[in-house]
TrEMBL record, chain A:
<protein>
    <submittedName>
        <fullName>Ribonuclease P protein subunit p30-like</fullName>
    </submittedName>
</protein>
<comment type="similarity">
    <text>Belongs to the eukaryotic/archaeal RNase P protein component 3 family.</text>
</comment>
<dbReference type="Pfam" id="PF01876">
    <property type="entry name" value="RNase_P_p30"/>
</dbReference>
<dbReference type="InterPro" id="IPR002738">
    <property type="entry name" value="RNase_P_p30"/>
</dbReference>
<dbReference type="GO" id="GO:0008033">
    <property type="term" value="P:tRNA processing"/>
</dbReference>
<dbReference type="GO" id="GO:0003723">
    <property type="term" value="F:RNA binding"/>
</dbReference>
<feature type="compositionally biased region" description="Basic residues">
    <location>
        <begin position="284"/>
        <end position="295"/>
    </location>
</feature>
<feature type="region of interest" description="Disordered">
    <location>
        <begin position="258"/>
        <end position="295"/>
    </location>
</feature>
<keyword id="KW-0819">tRNA processing</keyword>
TrEMBL record, chain B:
<dbReference type="GO" id="GO:0001682">
    <property type="term" value="P:tRNA 5'-leader removal"/>
</dbReference>
<feature type="domain" description="Ribonucleases P/MRP subunit Pop8-like">
    <location>
        <begin position="12"/>
        <end position="83"/>
    </location>
</feature>
<protein>
    <submittedName>
        <fullName>Ribonuclease P protein subunit p14-like</fullName>
    </submittedName>
</protein>
<dbReference type="InterPro" id="IPR049128">
    <property type="entry name" value="Pop8-like_dom"/>
</dbReference>
<dbReference type="InterPro" id="IPR038085">
    <property type="entry name" value="Rnp2-like_sf"/>
</dbReference>
<dbReference type="GO" id="GO:0005730">
    <property type="term" value="C:nucleolus"/>
</dbReference>
<keyword id="KW-0819">tRNA processing</keyword>
<dbReference type="GO" id="GO:0030681">
    <property type="term" value="C:multimeric ribonuclease P complex"/>
</dbReference>
<dbReference type="Pfam" id="PF20976">
    <property type="entry name" value="Pop8"/>
</dbReference>
Length: 295, 119
């Protein structure tokens, strides 16, 4: 079974409080938390747009002992949530930029329709987080959400504000059920955003909240376990997508002799060709030309 | 030995819950405990929610933990209401739901804290 994750523990300088939250998460049965840094890129001039990722919380052996007894490990990740409103802020979020790519998970919180569509269609992010504690500033539409699901992006619902205050609860329930009509319960993660340890809830309780939001039992459980793992895997592939693929067709011509025929790529990309020829073992090249002449 | 076959939704669900206050010295008696649950249901579902029949089968005031019984159709409601509770008398608190099962017998062991003895 996939481990239980809480991918939204707000990072603060108050280490005492943060420590309490992480300890409570372990006590409740989470095996993975992500420390979340929330930024609005490009608001302060002369400063780096994105701060460097927070250091993991140091935990004592005594807190980890119950996990160790069950042969489990505890994982601490870092997550960046960028609040974006303009195109300029969007470009600051290039996943190849040094401070951005040091985070494990990348999330965006779009503030208007244009940015929401951009996030669903072409931004390289793992999570789209909407501020559900107020009336959404735009209408959710099926097309961008479908596209985001096809690209493997997850939508986030945070539950701690709902526990804190009854007005926020009303908004969160209405927005979450709204989102659920489009997602049909798929591609959703539930996370806490707890500011105090007492606001955190156990993974099974959170899964039950998912049922209240309109998912079925299995989907709700996935929202705190399997979908979180999928976010992590998505984050890993995001970093490794800078590469070249070459295809080789291997044909058997005469028994005992295997010849290699190259398929030129559809678009004659110079880099691809160069890399291909660079990888060629020097002994094989004459054989290939010889065969082409025979044809 | 008698064999029991259960089909469809169970008539009752049992929940093993623990009420946790931020202030660890709080003492709660069974009537207050009942009020806490009522208030939680009330704030989440209003009068209709408060009318749901919830039985406290066993209560332990040392640890403020109890075993509740509720009709199967109201289980999700009760669980959700307990999860959403955050304050009682302006004191921060939280319900920890340890186990949920359609059978009381299941509380004899907890599958969430199973230990594998591999040595």
């Amino acid at each position: 079974m996939a481990r239980f994750c809480d991918f939204n523990v707000p990072y603060s300088e108050n280490t005492e409080n943060l420590h309490q939250i992480v300890e409570m998460a372990i006590k409740l049965g989470y095996e993975s938390v992500a420390l979340n840094c929330c930024v609005t890129p490009g608001t302060k001039k002369g400063q780096a747009a994105v701060p460097s990722p927070p250091k993991p919380v140091e935990l004592s052996q005594a807190t980890l002992a119950p996990l160790m007894a069950q042969r489990k490990t505890f994982q601490q990740l870092t997550r960046l949530t960028a609040i974006i409103e303009t195109n300029e802020q969007k470009y600051k979020l290039n996943p190849n930029n040094p401070p951005v790519n040091t985070y494990d998970i990348l999330a965006v919180q779009p503030l208007n329709m244009k940015m929401f569509e951009a996030a669903c269609h072409d931004l390289e992010v793992d999570i789209i987080s909407l501020d559900m504690t107020q009336k959404l500033p735009f209408l959710l539409k099926l097309t961008p959400i479908k596209r985001a699901i096809a690209r493997g992006i997850r939508f986030e619902i945070v539950y701690a504000p709902a526990i804190r205050d009854s007005t926020l609860r009303r908004y969160i329930i209405s927005n979450a059920t709204d989102l659920m009509t489009f997602c049909k319960g798929k591609n959703i993660i539930l996370s806490s955003q707890a500011e105090k340890a007492i606001e955190l809830r156990g993974p099974h309780d959170v899964a039950n909240l998912g049922v209240l939001f309109g998912m079925n039992q299995a989907q709700a459980k996935d929202a705190v376990s399997v979908n979180c793992r999928a976010v992590l895997l998505h984050a890993e592939t995001r970093g490794s997508a800078v590469g070249v693929i070459s295809i080789e067709r291997i044909m058997k011509q005469t028994p005992g002799v295997i010849s290699v025929e190259r398929i030129p790529p559809a678009s004659a990309d110079k880099r691809t060709l160069e890399k291909d020829s660079g990888e060629d073992p020097p002994g094989k090249k004459p054989k290939m030309t010889a065969q082409k002449k025979i044809k | 030995m008698k064999r029991i076959v259960s089909k469809g939704d169970a008539p009752y669900y049992y929940l093993k819950v623990l009420l946790e206050f931020e202030d660890k010295t709080m003492a709660v008696d069974v009537l207050t405990f009942r009020t806490v649950i009522m208030k939680a249901m009330m704030s989440m579902y209003g009068e209709v929610g408060a009318a749901v029949q919830i039985d406290i089968l066993k209560y332990e005031d040392k640890t403020i933990s109890a075993i509740l019984r509720v009709a199967g159709s109201n289980m999700v409601k009760l669980w959700g209401a307990l999860t959403m509770l955050s304050y009682y008398d302006e004191k921060p608190c939280a319900f920890r739901v340890h186990q949920v099962s359609p059978f009381l017998m299941a509380f004899a062991a907890s599958s969430r804290q199973l230990l594998l003895h591999t040595e």
